[in-house]
Amino acid sequence: MNNKKAFIFDLDGVIVDTAKYHFLAWQKIAKALHINFTHEHNELLKGVSRVRSLDIILELGNVSASQEDKDKWLIQKNEDYLSYLVDMDESEILPGVFNILQFLKEQNQGIALGSASKNARPILEKTGILSYFDVIVDGNDVTNAKPDPEVFLKAAQLLQISPEDAFVFEDSVAGVQAANIGKMTSIGIGSKAILHEAHYIFEDFTSMDTHFIESLISK
Fold first, then answer.
1. Residue 138 near residue 116, CB atoms below 8 Å
2. What distance in Å separates the CA atoms of residue 219 and residue 214, rounded to the nearest whole number?
3. b/e string for 166-194 if b means 16 or more Cβ within 10 A?
4. What is the distance between the alpha carbons of residues 73 and 71, in angstroms, rounded to a whole number?
5. Residue list, annotated binding site
6. Annotated binding site for substrate
7. Nearest Cα to Cα of residue 201 among 178, 169, 158, 179
8. Calculated CA dihedral for residues 95, 97, 99, 102, nearest 10 degrees
9. How high is the pLDDT of residue 138?
10. Binding site for Mg(2+): residue ranges?
11. pLDDT for position 46
């Protein structure tokens, strides 16, 4: 297998389950603003930038705010979120992810992170898998949020691999759409009912074997 392809991973909900920490941090902001923010509402924030996430929460509560207040809440949310990450370690890696990363590395494939998170690097460091990634493109590196494909296109470009030879692992509708718009192959991780636009869908990485990865490499 000499065909080098690009395998691009989203972070939250794909590699690690930090969605629970985002929820707690956003819920704290919402509670202070007397907005009822549920787990169902949290689904609306998947794959969405921090700025847009705050706007969605404010819309849920029909709350208007100045830019100064928004900036203050965004800082507060991030500080609360980071406080939950202090004790992160390799146990936070979702089942099956490490085996896939290891196999891709052994096959000399291009491995990238494509995430809206601005905390991607410290999370990868804390979980001990930073060295597996040849390229990291996160919220600090792009201006357009998913479903705009900028984050994935930039990752493929840095790997020097064409979009047609790129495979994106995503758990959000916006992320799947971004991969599809970017002319990449989308691999949904999660519910078929939600991620039905993906080219392939797996419940998680434990249900994905190396034969599937080999088939992508040999395409």
1. yes
2. 9
3. bbbbbbbbbbbbbbbbbebbbbbbbeeeb
4. 6
5. 10-12, 26, 45-50, 53, 77, 115-119, 146, 170-171
6. 10-12, 26, 45-50, 53, 77, 115-119, 146
7. 169
8. -160
9. 95
10. 10, 12, 170-171
11. 81
Whole-angstrom Cα distance, residue 99 to residue 210?
9
Q: Give the span between the Cα atoms of 90 and 131, in whole angstroms.
A: 13
11, 113 in Cβ contact below 8 A?
A: yes
* 1: pLDDT strictly greater than 60: no
- Catalytic residue (one of 12, 55, 69, 89): 12
State yes or no: is 89 an active-site residue: no
Give the containing element (helix H, strand E) for 167: strand 166-170
The CA–CA distances, whole Å, from 116 to 99, 141, 160, 192, 217 equal 24, 9, 21, 23, 26
Residue tagged active-site, from 10, 71, 138, 204: 10
* Percent with pLDDT over 90 in the chain: 87
The tokens 């996160």 sit on which residue? Answer: 138
The answer to whether residue 10 is catalytic is: yes
87-128, pLDDT tens digit by residue? 899 999 999 999 999 999 999 999 999 998 888 999 999 999
26-75 pLDDT tens trace: 999 999 999 999 999 998 888 788 899 999 999 999 999 999 999 999 99
